[in-house]
Structure prediction request, 81 residues.
Amino acid sequence: MGACCVCAIKYRSQRLIPSPVSITVYVICAVEFFVRFWKDKPVRKDETSLKAEEERTAGMDMRMKTMIIGLTFNTTCLFIR
Prediction:
């Protein structure tokens, strides 16, 4: 019982707020992903795919747009905090 209480106390005393540097790195990676997704320009081409060049990836449905809006709102709130 003593070890569990010590771990809980140490965990509570640690800083639980993400640092601005880690949030900024996350935002940069997310922006790069969405730009590549919208422009249909992956980091590397898939050589084994039988997909024609004129075909595009599937568009975003309403659930995907809602998730992106939610992630944007969440990240903005973390920056403000």
Observations:
- The radius of gyration is 20 Å.
